[in-house]
Design a protein that fits this description.
Layout (H helix, E strand, L loop, with lengths): L3 H7 L11 E3 L9 H19 L6 E4 L16 H15 L3 E4 L15 H17 L10 E8 L2 E7 L6 E3 L7 E8 L4 E9 L2 E5 L6 E6 L11 E3 L8 E2 L5
Parallel strand pairs: 1-2, 2-3
Antiparallel strand pairs: 4-5, 5-9, 6-11, 7-8, 7-10, 8-9, 10-12
Length: 244
């Protein structure tokens, strides 16, 4: 069918009804066009809010879930990671847009994770805060807010560290895995992260002067990608060398 049929048949008939917000899970088919997706998704959120006459309706989007073999190292050429970054970009472009991670909830051969309960639970946590004013949950995963190079490490600052800060997931190592740093020559090296207050220090023993860092930058990170806030919401994948 024609592209406009998706809106005319699926969304337009709902516009007369009262609504408190949107829960969104989509994007797998658009991975080849990740560099455009941020613009598309931002335009869609604006348009739906316009249709309901409320420019601030809560909108929570869900990152593409993990797929293919799980890895404990970053893949600097991961297109799926670029897609997730584009999705996160909408939350940077618009107010009252939340991001839920399902990067740790996946399936090696299916883009639709079988664990629907935790996907729904995480979406619900954000919706309860944004749409219904529940204040005893942060509702959103830690997300990179900035970085600086400090000696042999890259320090990552976050927003949404929860009410009690950062931690590594229970039952995993005290250090944060699935990290990489880039040296001054542009070469990437496997790295580890160390929680320092509400920040993360990422370094590699063979890199004296790092330039950039990445975390969980692969299609399906394994359990070594273990950074979360104390509320148990996993850190979103990031790269400091983003072009955005």
């Amino acid at each position: 069918g024609a592209p406009y049929a998706l809106y005319d048949a699926g969304i337009a008939p709902l516009v007369p009804y009262a609504i408190r917000g949107f829960l969104w899970y989509q994007g797998g088919n658009d991975v080849p066009w990740a560099e455009r997706y941020r613009k598309w998704q931002t335009a869609m959120v604006r348009d739906w809010r316009r249709a309901w006459g409320d420019g601030d309706l809560p909108f929570v989007l869900t990152l593409q879930a993990g797929i293919r073999a799980r890895k404990g190292t970053c893949d600097v050429n991961s297109k799926l990671s670029e897609m997730r970054e584009a999705q996160i970009g909408t939350a940077d472009d618009l107010p009252n847009v939340g991001v839920v991670s399902t990067v740790d909830i996946g399936c090696v051969d299916d883009g639709h994770p079988k664990d629907k309960f935790d996907v729904g639970k995480r979406m619900c946590a954000w919706a309860m805060k944004a749409a219904y004013g529940l204040r005893d949950v942060d509702g959103e995963s830690p997300r990179i807010a900035g970085y600086s190079v400090e000696g042999k490490a890259v320090r990552i600052r976050f927003r949404h560290v929860g009410f009690s800060g950062l931690r590594t997931k229970a039952g995993t190592a005290s250090e944060v895995g699935c990290c990489a740093v880039q040296d001054k020559a542009g070469k990437w090296h496997d790295a580890k992260g160390r929680i320092d207050g509400e920040t993360l220090l990422v370094s590699a023993p063979d890199v004296a002067e790092p330039a950039h860092a990445r975390y969980a930058w692969t299609s399906y990170p394994d359990e070594t990608a273990n950074l979360e806030n104390v509320e148990g919401l996993p850190c979103l994948p990031f790269r400091t060398d983003s072009a955005k």
